[in-house]
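S1.2 Input.
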Amino acid sequence: MTKDIFDCIRESHSVRSFKSAQIPEPTLTRILEAGNMAPSAGNLQPWYFFVVQDSSVKDKLASAAFDQEQVNDAPTVVVILADPARSNERYGERGAQLYCLQDTAAATQNILLAAEGLGIAACWVGAFDETKVEEAVEAPPRLRAVAMICLGYSDEQPKEYKERLRLAEVAKFIH
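S1.3 Output.
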C-alpha cells in the first residue's frame, strides 16, 4: 500500500537512526525506478545510482560524509552521481554545470518520495567530500557525486510536523 503523494510530501522527514533489517529487493527496485523516472533536461537522464550495502564501503562513505553515523547505520545507501559530460554534449557548459545537478536533484527527490510512499525511512546527505565518495564507490572519473540517500526502516519515534514558512513568504504571483 502506498501513500498519496501529498501525504508523502507532508510527512517525509530525515531519519538518522535505522533498524538493521534490509529493504526487500523488489521494494528497493521500485524506489530506484522512481528516481529513474525523474524529469531531466532533454530527457538525457544524466544520473547513476550506486546502491551500497557493503559495510566496508559504507564506512568509507561515512568517513567522506564527515562521520555522519546514519551513513553507517542505514542498511542501504544510494549514492547519486551526475554525468556532466552527458549534459554538456547537448547544452554545453550550462548543461555540465547546472542541468545535470538539477536533474540529479529531481531524481533524488523522487527517490525520497517513493521511499516515503512505501514506508521506507530516508535521509538525504549532501555534506561530503565528493572525491572521497567517488573513490569509495569506484566511480568512473567522468561522474560527480551529488547526493547520498540513506534508506531503511526507522528506529526513531515519530516526529512532529515541522513548521514551514508560509507560502506568502516564499511565493510571488505575477499576473
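S1.4 Remarks. Strands lie at 47-52, 76-82, 121-125, 144-152.
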